[in-house]
Amino acid sequence: xxxxxxxxxxxxxxxxxxxxxxxxxxxxxxxxxxxxxxxxxxxxxxxxxxxxxxxxxxxxxxxxxxxxxxxxxxxxxxxxxxxxxxxxxxxxxxxxxxxxxxxxxxxxxxxxxxxxxxxxxxxxxxxxxxxxxxxxxxxxxxxxxxxxxxxxxxxxxxxxxxxxxxxxxxxxxxxxxxxxxxxxxxxxxxxxxxxxxxxxxxxxxxxxxxxxxxxxxxxxxxxxxxxxxxxxxxxxxxxxxxxxxxxxxxxxxxxxxxxxxxxxxxxxxxxxxxxxxxxxxxxxxxxxxxxxxxxxxxxxxxxxxxxxxx
Length: 310
Hints:
With 310 residues, the chain is of the alpha/beta class. The protein contains nine helices and 15 strands.
């Protein structure tokens, strides 16, 4: 098991709070890094054996910085995921009033989650992005900005006070975090798993995306995330980041990935890992005709036909 975990720092981020929900975090050295990129690079260079970073939120979807880092560079694998409910506090230096606030800061992913509150209560405040919400709190402590949107728990760490709490535009907002390491054999399936891949089309043609999605649909595999990301090769050139229900050891998932590898220019496997939103007992029922037993029975029938035993 990894001796150290890198995470998006500094201390006091939602990422740190989510990381500490993992039982094994209590026995690991937790090392904050200034960005998602640097945390993942620490894994690639061997500084850390795993990194814990945000990858998706329920308001804006995929965290593009994390997705792009997983798409490019030396391959990495997702091993775990954690869901964390998110509400923000407006952190200020002691004595600051709402009317004193001219500048506010937070991670860019926070802005869509507090946009309406900001428009209503601080319509003239200038937004400044920070590397993380905790880093925004640190910059407020240093006098760089007047206020930061961060977790209320970060106030004591940076000598600030929460002027407002429970800030969120969307009820039940959540952020998904993932534990990422160097490629290795996926953990055994639990019955409630998720597989993440990145797909590059071989060429641009009508129905190209349909062809990719058809490999999942024809095998009864439900998709949980689909996001396009530019490849950097020019306008209109995209790859597709996909999360799908199931494990690579499932017959239906293995066949879908085989089909995608056949028709895609490139397929990057990002991992099969337990879902954080449900337990195995709550896993959705497999559609008729897509269970492992039915795949094996069909393959056996084909073999018997080939032998003349139909």
